[in-house]
Design brief:
Number of helices: 12
Largest sheet: 11 strands, mixed
InterPro entries: Aldolase_TIM, Elp3/MiaA/NifB-like_rSAM, Radical_SAM_PqqE_MftC-like, rSAM, rSAM_sf
Strand content: 5-15%
CATH topology of the largest domain: TIM Barrel
CATH class of the largest domain: Alpha Beta
Protein name: Radical SAM superfamily enzyme, MoaA/NifB/PqqE/SkfB family
GO molecular function, one term: iron-sulfur cluster binding
Number of strands: 11
CATH superfamily of the largest domain: Aldolase class I
Bound molecules: iron/sulfur cluster
Keywords: Iron, Iron-sulfur, Metal-binding, S-adenosyl-L-methionine
Order of helices and strands: EHEHEHEHHEHEHHEHEEEHHEH
Low-confidence stretches: 348-352
Mean pLDDT: 89
Organism: Caloramator proteoclasticus DSM 10124
């Protein structure tokens, strides 16, 4: 089957440092005590040359709190928007704590397209219970206002828990009044810190239906044009189980330079400091969903709640809690036919 030449979506984690230590953080940001070194500014800026060659439709800068490396953020945005002649939409994720008006202006000047801010309710009590810091609600609201003042598109993500379902309607209204362009929610993922902290706060099926109802009402009455979006965080994994021949279109790079199959699978299959992205892409990253061990994992995943992957394959590490497995797609003979059993027997910890 024909494969596409380059990834069309690239997600790049800039850091796992964070100003917050949220109860639900799926990648355990703020406590990556694993001895690995995050990529330097130069390494990331060099990687931008590769991104420019790929000319993806979207680049997402993620973390951690991206603005902890704000000078780097400006340089990356500027380099990519200039290098692709504004072809690539550049989005970033932030908790808003460091997003002053001055920072918003610089993001705009650099060429940012959209910033996603996290807001987990309509009151300080609800938001700050999850975020663990007094004042974080006000910071998020102020960040939204600063972005709006600079005419930057704002998306808000609201993580559902048992504590905030009752506030969804008000949170949607609040964001609408602030001029937010899209309001997103997705099922709570019991991974990373969430798996330690939030087992008792997972919304029920009826709770999720309640959110859908709020969204439907919003769509019916929407005068402001704010979009409400319900996302499925594991859709890229479950759809793999339905269509093994589908082309891969996306690449996720962690802050150490490791290439992820998915941020939710604890196996890294390369490192951009070792070989170029295009080498990995051509050697099999473009066809990753057809690799037997990837299929085996996808078949095990049925819902966001199962994301700890400790059912059938209990030997897999817990993602972002234990060290991830590393097996290099380029260096490993017969990578494209490896089974999960072989991976588990062969793997050694060689993460960069
Ligand atoms: S959820 Fe976001 S803001 Fe919270 S600790 Fe993780 S990266 Fe930081």
């Amino acid at each position: 089957m024909e494969r596409i030449d380059n990834p069309t979506i690239i997600a790049l984690d800039l850091t796992y440092k964070c100003t917050l230590k949220c109860l639900h953080c799926f990648n355990s940001s703020g406590e990556h005590d694993n001895g690995f070194k995050e990529m330097t500014d130069d390494e990331i800026l060099n990687f931008c040359d590769e991104i420019i060659l790929c000319k993806p439709s979207t680049l997402c800068l993620c973390g951690g709190e991206t603005l902890i490396r704000k000078e780097l953020v400006y340089k990356v945005i500027k380099k990519i928007s200039d290098g692709t002649n504004n072809h690539t939409a550049i989005n970033m994720v932030s908790n808003g704590e460091l997003l002053t008006l001055e920072v918003a202006k610089k993001l705009k000047e650099s060429g940012i397209n959209m910033v996603q801010i996290s807001l987990d309710g309509a009151s300080p009590e609800t938001h700050e219970w999850l975020r663990g810091k007094k004042g974080s609600f006000e910071s998020a609201i102020q960040a939204i206002k600063n972005l709006k003042e600079c005419d930057i598109t704002v998306s808000v993500s609201c993580t559902p828990t048992k504590k905030n379902i009752h506030e969804y309607s008000k949170a949607v209204e609040l964001c609408e009044s602030l001029g937010v362009q899209s309001f997103r929610a997705q099922p709570l993922m019991l991974m990373g810190r969430a798996s330690k902290n939030l087992k008792d706060y997972v919304p029920s099926y009826l709770d999720y239906l309640q959110i859908r109802k709020v969204f439907n009402n919003h769509i019916k009455n929407n005068k402001s044009k704010m979009i409400t979006e319900w996302g499925d965080p594991i859709e890229h994994l479950t759809s793999g189980a339905m269509d093994w021949d589908r082309k891969n279109i996306a690449v996720n790079i962690d802050a150490y330079g490791n290439i992820e199959i998915s941020p939710y699978i604890p196996i890294r299959i390369g490192n951009i400091k070792r070989y170029s992205l295009s080498t990995y892409w051509k050697k099999g990253l473009n066809d990753i969903w057809s690799v037997p061990f990837v299929k085996s994992i996808c078949k095990e995943i049925k819902s966001a709640e199962e994301m700890e992957l400790n059912n059938k394959y209990s030997t897999l590490p817990k993602n972002f809690i234990e060290k991830q497995l590393y097996i290099d797609l380029v260096d490993t003979e017969n990578f494209n036919s490896l089974t999960l059993e072989e991976i588990l027997s062969k793997w050694s910890d060689k993460s960069e």
